[in-house]
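Suppose you are handed a protein chain with no further information: no name, no annotation, nothing but its sequence. What can you learn? This example shows the usual starting point.
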Amino acid sequence: MKSWEWIAPCHFGLEALLKREITELGYEIASTSDGRVCFYGDALACARANIFLRTAERVLLKIGSFHAESFEELFQGTKALPWEETIPRDGKFWVAKAASVKSALFSPSDIQSVMKKAMVERLRSAYHIDWFAEDGASFPIRVFLHRDEVTVGLDTSGESLHKRGYRKLTAKAPIAENLAAALIMLTPWRPDRILVDPFCGSGTIPIEAAMMAAHIAPGMNRSFTAEGWSHLIAKKNWYEAADEAGACLTPDADTDIQGYDIDEKMISIARANARLAGVENLIHFQRRDVAQLRHAKKYGFLITNPPYGERLSEKEELPALYRTLGERYRELDSWSLYLITSYEKAERDIGRKADKNRKIYNGMMKTYYYQFSGPKPPDRKRREL
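A reasonable first move is to predict its three-dimensional structure. Written in structure tokens, the prediction is:
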């Protein structure tokens, strides 16, 4: 079976995590760079990556790469790529996004226009036609320019993979589903351990945790652009990947996952989203102020996305909010605290220096993932003696 190179973009700072996910799916890593992991795989790899990867933004089929410092070089480099091997005569094709970093060419609209013209010229020659109806399947192209190196890929996903399909309603500043999943995966949490999000908003972190506990593949309830590329990826590949995801399900997993928020409306939204995700029975949502945070059990996890204070009125409230979180955390017995925030005085106000601090870009915003580790529970076998 033919093998291709695939590109999986991700949040900056999460490349190692995505690389681990891809390796666990059984695919060979081709390269890793800032915000991107490339790997080799066949047509089935495309379907499996789209359905199973929790931390990726999307999956691209790599068409090629070349050097370009001028628009003429960009035109010729794009024209030299074998577009006819992937885009059929009736395909609808366009450059959906162009991103440029430290390159001579930096205007997205100009890059998109030049590349489209080059593609038309290449395909016109390949198919011996002067006009393209473009009434067939969609082939969105995404291009990255870094230090004048151009990387071109076809977007197999369509909508970003963080859109699992369950979040119809959101909070004021929701965390993306794939970032929420990554935050959980960066901790030692397992489904048999307690997890509480005291600032749950629309419920994304608890829902992602519950989906992991129930082995619900993040992409199993949505569609992908490449499902229309039957000349490249057979329908049976999508069916096979979907069947694999269905066989993994454990909907009645035994969990203790809780989400709190001070806003009753947010709790209603979180419950509705959990219902759409199929994990309503695995999460307990409750209206509760962070000052009321308490739990009788030991060895739990607080994993949360508290307010950042992006608005001036909220910024004044942050010191007291983080102090309260720190006070309540210290009252919990042997717990761990993991929180993502752009608030730079978080450690000071919590009252403890984090054991680890990872820089993660949440979109264009630089945030820090503070990790306050609690003690490990006794070995289970030893406890059962």
